[in-house]
Amino acid sequence: MVDDVFDEVGLKVENLHASYGAVEVLRGLNFEVASKGVSVILGANGAGKTTTLRAICNMCTTSGSVVLGDEDITRTGTAEIVRKGVAHVPQGRGTFPELSTMDNLMIGAYTRKDNEIRDDIDRWFEIFPRLSERRDQLAGSLSGGEQQMLAVARALMCRPRLLLLDEPSLGLAPLIIEDLFERFTTLNKETGLTMLIVEQNANLALEMADYGYVIESGEISLSGSADQLKNDPAVQEAYLGA
Amino acid sequence: MNWNFDVLPDFIFNGLSLGAIYGAVALALVLIFKATTLINFATGELAMLGAFLVYVLHMEQGIWLWLSMLIAMALSAGLGVLIERSLTRPFDPADHLPVVLITLGLFLIINAVAGDIWNYQVRILTNPFGKFPDWVPSVGGDRYVEVLGSRLKYQSIGIWVTLALALFLLGLILNRTKAGLAFRAVSSNTESARLVGVHTGRTLGFGWAIASAFGTLGAVLVAPQLGGVNPNMMATILIYALAGAALGGLDSLGGAVLGGILVGIIQAVFVTWGGVVVFGQLYMSILQLAAAFLVILIVLLFRPAGLFGTRRVERV
Questions:
Q1: Strand partners, A138
Q2: Are residues A186 and A73 in the same domain?
Q3: Closest Cβ opposite residue B196 in set A59, A98, A108
Q4: Which residues of A162-210 form beta strands (DSSP E)?
Q5: Can you tell me the ipTM of this complex?
């Protein structure tokens, strides 16, 4: 058992192992995500960051335990995990290129049965006016930044309580990344949405996060508050380029 | 050499109605290909089975033809769901070979079972568009109208109208319903579809259902042109449909229909009409099938994505 670091735990992962075929990628991860907080997982290429998020959503072979709030979701199917309130923006955005911007948002609300879906779409169009301008365009024709916005807006259409973001900065221009991360911060402050972000861009990620973990070869090698990590010599050397 | 242009419209009409059928079967192929990127070789045999269901319901049980068709389409759809669930879902979707082999196996099994039950002779099935209904004012004859000095058969008109209606309905289902949106999402990006809560297996089953129903409709409409139903009726039609699907683009629904129609026209006009002039009647059936393969070959060589398909860009 791991002692809870936070007052209120949004997600608790214990002894998580994951493998693709015979290759074991995660070798017993333990970490927690504070409810309503922003946590970040740092790590180099191939350390297991993406697999961690995939394992949480049960998209690969796993063992160990994943607890969302007070519910064990380790053996829950991916589609059902979404219904329990986990939204996942995969690496490479994962939009539906052959569907229009509008349809991308509509499918984001696939699990919902209420009648406020249109209102939510209007809200995201207000927040991301670029998407509104391109509502009838195919997602595949949007720029990288627009696609990332679309991917985030689509994930939020299911009204999640936990948002998983897999390298949202990948392939985007610095200005766009800054804008995007500002939006994440606002979102977290305004709605109290719990976030777990996996990033290589440690500077930005630690700027917005409350708490962070460093993952190396499928194991957590370091953890602490964002400020602690920022000042940690090992983190500075390996991830902050100091 | 006698270039008989008087009969050319006849061939065009013929090509358009055969082509529409190829389009329907091509659509059944593409519906499944779009979602899974695999070719269901059992498409034709499932359609043949559907046509035999209509035969049993209508010719043997005396149920109204159109009702028989609806029941057969519903049963085919159910069979499609069953096949998806039991024979394809257990396999890794990234590994195509096992599933393609399974559909090939189904092709042989369904054909053999049908042959065992109904043997291989052609059985007459009522033509849904044999002659114009009484309320249509007579222009020409009760089985055709005169257009450009040629006979446009009631059967051709019926096939076009029926398939146009079916296509319109399919468009509504895909573009205006939640299940349709889910199907398009799974076709576009299966993993992301799962991440928005779509049950991808059930959605693929839905695709199999629509595809099977469409195939059955195509088989029933083509039966009169073949003299009736028989277990081998769809074998060559599947090849023309494959040529149509390849021509239109294997992942484009509209392209499949258009590709099917084009193959029908190529077959009727260039091969049959042109061929009769050059080679005489004897070589026609051989030439027609060769033309279909030629279309597939040319498309694969020069435009692998087809006329309307999306070129796949692999990003790592």
A1: A100
A2: yes
A3: A108
A4: 162-166, 194-199
A5: 0.91
Question: Could B185 and A82 be called an inter-chain contact, meaning their C-beta atoms sit closer than 8 Å?
Answer: no
Domain boundary among A119, A141, A159: A159
pLDDT digits 0-9 by tens, A77-86:
999 999 999 9
B181–A95 C-beta distance less than 8 A: no
Cβ pair B241, B47 in contact under 8 A: no
Do residues A192 and A204 share a domain?
yes
Q: What is the pLDDT of residue B205?
A: 96
Q: What are phi and psi of B27, to 5 degrees?
A: -60, -40
| Model confidence band, residue B285 (pLDDT cutoffs 50, 70, 90) | low
Q: What is the pLDDT at residue B308?
A: 84
Of B181, B189, B194, nearest to A79 by CB-CB distance is B194
Low-confidence ranges of chain A (pLDDT < 70): 1-5, 7, 242
Q: Give the domain-ending residue among A136, A159, A182.
A: A159
pLDDT at B224 over 80: yes
Residue B113: pLDDT band (50, 70, 90) is very high
pLDDT of residue B131: 73
Which chain B residue has its CA at the smallest distance from A90's CA? B192
Quote the domain boundaries for residue A138: 94-159
Residue ranges with strand state E in chain A:
9-20, 23-34, 38-42, 61-68, 71-72, 86-89, 162-166, 194-199, 211-216, 219-225
Global pTM reads 0.90
Q: Are residues A20 and A112 in the same domain?
A: no
User: Is residue A76 located within the same domain as residue A98?
Assistant: no
Q: How many separate domains does chain A show?
A: 2
Contact by Cβ (8 Å): B173, B31 = no
Chain B nearest-CA residue for A109: B196
Q: What are the residue ranges spanned by the domains of chain B?
A: 14-231
**What stretches of B177-312 adopt beta strand conformation (E)?**
none
Q: Is the pLDDT of residue B177 over 90?
A: yes
For residue B261, what pLDDT is reported? 94
A80 and A98, same structural domain? no
Nearest CA in chain B to A98: B188
Running DSSP on this structure, what letter comes out for residue A8?
S
pLDDT higher than threshold 70 for residue B315:
no
Give the E-state strand segments of chain B in sequence order: 144-147, 150-153
B93 CA to chain A: closest CA distance, Å? 14
Query: Does one domain contain both A166 and A238?
Result: yes
pLDDT of B244 reads 94
**Does one domain contain both A175 and A226?**
yes
Residues from chain B that touch A78, judged by Cβ atoms under 8 A, are 194-195
Instruction: Examine the domain organization and report whether A140 and A167 are in the same domain.
Output: no
Of A80, A90, A158, which is closest to B191 when you measure between CB atoms? A90
